[in-house]
């Protein structure tokens, strides 16, 4: 039963990836294009604002943080959007085939894992290109990958909480598009996260589902600890609990939602 | 043999209003999330019961026809049984693997080929390896769409999509099979293959079948329920269910004037056993029928057709004056037509008169119809049931 669900989710993920590749001339290259554009703009503006001075390691770290932040944010918001829209997107299959809703969520999660893996590879490739030293401590790498997992879990949780409401109200889709820029602005992407456990920014980062993981990624790439490590772990555990509850709720929610979507 | 499906006191409601529908859905979601209750079992403002207190069970080998007019609750019942809708009251208990032919083409990705779509569907049905390869070949063979099987679905005609959908959905061996008006796909040859496939599936399953097609129901089913406004009005033999369905269809048709064309040019009276028939009354099986047609406003030598239609307005019989070498007299006003006996199965019927030009090409007039009902013993859902001279012959066994 469990393996059937996993296999169904994997099948749907492969189907979705093949469709994306077929429908886009550049296919998965978009994973690279957008963050590189952001990073190029950021480097240009930063250099111009500093009077065209020679790049330093700290400056390169800023660029790496911005590049990693944007590329991971893009991935995170895509997972949220895909999961929140899965009922509407797959209503035909949900009605026409004797398969429950969980494989459809798992399909997005599998795609998310692939997308995050590609992006983490891009970040690792960007480290030597920007002239930043690799982290030497193994623990830093553990935190780096755990933060990626935390991002995936938080995106799945947020998407799944929004999914039923996205069926009933189109506002959800619009809201997700509208809040993208504000989330970028309040997240430690173009500026470093405050490393003190007080102040409004600290608490904002605690409750911002992507802020803590991005702050920890940024610090782990510098081989440094972060005050957001423990909050990120707690947030992830909480997200996992909510995720399990949401999965359980799906079987009750889907018939109600399919009925409201009409024929 | 124990029942494979048990429907116990099933109630289902819908909202007529989009705004309140969304509001109630939001409330139901919150109730499900925080109170652990699935639905609100009480009727709220703008809601109505689509299903009311349904009770029946079905065993292996039974093929149940669910009949009723639009809005009777047929599709809602199927969706509740399939688990696609949640009942507001009561329960559906299923024992065995469920298969359904509902919205069969749904979920096909337009840019993927038929083969790829079928492969995905097979995998979702739990198939892999040789099992999956066999499934794909079976679907390909049954759909019979040649090279299009390897073309993107977006280039298919609607008939091809339906064929692929039926083929992909019907390659299974369920214990319980649910079918919703899906057999009217493709050309006649494909439809016949569909019937054959359904018969194969039905042999070892409990089947629930929804269709407006009397022919399909009579061909496939051995039991019928008739629904009206969400209630089961009849549960029993399929022939009686069909009869009731046709009877109700007759009620609806009697209220309608029907399609007419220059109806003022021709009128007629129905004579039953030589007496003028009063609309609304019933005829017994075998009653002698005749028409007196007022042709005073018609040109000479036109073709006159008397049409006998069933409750679904299908023409069952046609008496055409052109077949009788009718000699039109100098002056006449009434044309008498002896139609023989009403050898019809009990149900609702109507007569109408159609006038064509002498060469049979141009349409001159179509009269209003006269509805009538035939009563008597019900044997089978075939409308025209002639009597014959039946006798036993002595056989000389020694020779």
UniProtKB/TrEMBL annotation, chain A:
<keyword id="KW-1003">Cell membrane</keyword>
<dbReference type="GO" id="GO:0015920">
    <property type="term" value="P:lipopolysaccharide transport"/>
</dbReference>
<feature type="transmembrane region" description="Helical">
    <location>
        <begin position="25"/>
        <end position="45"/>
    </location>
</feature>
<feature type="transmembrane region" description="Helical">
    <location>
        <begin position="228"/>
        <end position="247"/>
    </location>
</feature>
<dbReference type="Pfam" id="PF01061">
    <property type="entry name" value="ABC2_membrane"/>
</dbReference>
<keyword id="KW-0813">Transport</keyword>
<keyword id="KW-1133">Transmembrane helix</keyword>
<protein>
    <recommendedName>
        <fullName>ABC-2 type transporter transmembrane domain-containing protein</fullName>
    </recommendedName>
</protein>
<feature type="transmembrane region" description="Helical">
    <location>
        <begin position="99"/>
        <end position="129"/>
    </location>
</feature>
<feature type="transmembrane region" description="Helical">
    <location>
        <begin position="175"/>
        <end position="194"/>
    </location>
</feature>
<dbReference type="GO" id="GO:0005886">
    <property type="term" value="C:plasma membrane"/>
</dbReference>
<keyword id="KW-0812">Transmembrane</keyword>
<feature type="domain" description="ABC-2 type transporter transmembrane">
    <location>
        <begin position="10"/>
        <end position="214"/>
    </location>
</feature>
<comment type="similarity">
    <text>Belongs to the ABC-2 integral membrane protein family.</text>
</comment>
<feature type="transmembrane region" description="Helical">
    <location>
        <begin position="141"/>
        <end position="163"/>
    </location>
</feature>
<feature type="transmembrane region" description="Helical">
    <location>
        <begin position="65"/>
        <end position="87"/>
    </location>
</feature>
<keyword id="KW-0472">Membrane</keyword>
<dbReference type="InterPro" id="IPR013525">
    <property type="entry name" value="ABC2_TM"/>
</dbReference>
<dbReference type="GO" id="GO:0140359">
    <property type="term" value="F:ABC-type transporter activity"/>
</dbReference>
């Amino acid at each position: 039963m469990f393996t059937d669900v996993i296999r169904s989710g994997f099948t749907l993920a492969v189907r979705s990836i093949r469709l994306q590749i077929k429908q886009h001339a550049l296919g998965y290259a978009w994973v690279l294009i957008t963050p590189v554009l952001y990073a190029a703009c950021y480097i240009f503006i930063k250099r111009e604002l500093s009077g065209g001075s020679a790049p330093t390691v700290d400056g390169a770290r800023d660029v790496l943080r911005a590049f990693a932040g944007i590329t991971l944010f893009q991935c995170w918001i895509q997972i949220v959007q895909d999961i929140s829209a899965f009922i509407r997107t797959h209503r035909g299959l949900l009605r026409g085939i004797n398969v429950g809703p969980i494989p459809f969520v798992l399909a997005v999660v599998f795609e998310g894992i692939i997308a995050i893996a590609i992006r983490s590879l891009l970040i690792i490739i960007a480290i030597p290109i920007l002239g930043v030293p690799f982290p030497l401590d193994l623990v830093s790498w553990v935190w780096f990958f755990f933060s990626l997992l935390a991002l995936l879990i938080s995106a799945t949780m947020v998407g799944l909480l929004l999914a039923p409401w996205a069926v009933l109200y189109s506002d959800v889709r619009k809201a997700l598009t509208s809040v993208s820029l504000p989330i970028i602005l309040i997240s430690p992407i173009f500026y470093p996260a405050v490393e003190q456990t007080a102040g409004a920014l600290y608490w904002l980062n605690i409750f911002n589902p992507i802020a803590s993981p991005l702050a920890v990624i940024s610090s782990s790439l510098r081989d440094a600890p972060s005050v957001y490590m423990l909050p990120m772990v707690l947030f992830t555990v909480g997200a996992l609990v909510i995720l399990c509850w949401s999965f359980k709720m799906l079987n009750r929610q889907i018939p109600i939602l399919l009925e409201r979507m009409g024929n | 043999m124990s029942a494979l499906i048990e429907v116990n006191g099933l109630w289902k409601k819908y909202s007529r209003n989009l705004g309140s529908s969304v509001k109630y859905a939001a409330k139901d979601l919150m109730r499900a999330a925080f109170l652990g209750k699935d639905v609100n079992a009480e009727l709220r403002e703008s809601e109505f019961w689509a299903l009311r207190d349904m009770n029946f069970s079905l065993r292996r080998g039974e093929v149940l026809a669910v009949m009723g007019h639009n809005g009777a609750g047929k599709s809602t019942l199927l969706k509740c049984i399939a688990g696609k809708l949640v009942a507001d009251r009561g329960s559906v208990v299923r024992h065995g693997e469920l298969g359904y032919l509902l919205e069969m083409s749904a979920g096909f990705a337009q840019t993927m080929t038929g083969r790829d779509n079928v492969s995905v569907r097979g995998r979702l049905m739990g198939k892999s390896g040789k099992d999956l390869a066999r499934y794909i070949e079976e679907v390909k063979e049954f759909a019979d769409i040649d090279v299009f099987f390897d073309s993107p679905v977006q280039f298919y005609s609607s008939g091809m999509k339906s064929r692929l959908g039926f083929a992909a959905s019907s390659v299974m061996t369920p214990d319980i099979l649910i079918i919703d008006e899906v057999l009217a796909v493709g050309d006649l040859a494909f439809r016949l293959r569909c019937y054959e496939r359904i018969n194969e599936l039905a042999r070892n399953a409990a089947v629930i079948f929804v269709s407006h097609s009397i022919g399909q129901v009579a061909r496939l089913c051995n039991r019928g329920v008739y629904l009206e406004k969400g209630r089961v009005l009849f549960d029993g033999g399929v022939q009686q269910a069909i009869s009731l369905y046709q009877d109700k269809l007759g009620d609806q048709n009697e209220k309608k004037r029907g399609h007419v064309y220059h109806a003022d040019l021709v009128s007629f009276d129905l004579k039953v056993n030589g007496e003028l028939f009063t609309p609304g009354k019933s005829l017994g099986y075998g009653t002698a029928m005749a028409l007196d047609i007022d042709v005073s406003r018609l040109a000479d030598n036109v073709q006159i057709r008397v049409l006998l239609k069933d409750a679904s307005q299908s023409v069952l019989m046609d008496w055409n004056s052109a077949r009788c070498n009718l000699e039109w007299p100098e002056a006449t006003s009434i044309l008498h037509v002896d139609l023989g006996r009403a050898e019809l199965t009990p149900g609702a019927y109507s007569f109408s008169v159609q006038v064509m030009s002498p060469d049979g090409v141009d349409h001159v007039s179509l009269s209003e119809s006269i509805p009538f009902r035939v009563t008597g013993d019900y044997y089978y859902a075939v409308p025209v049931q002639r009597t014959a001279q039946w006798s036993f012959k002595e056989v000389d066994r020694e020779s």
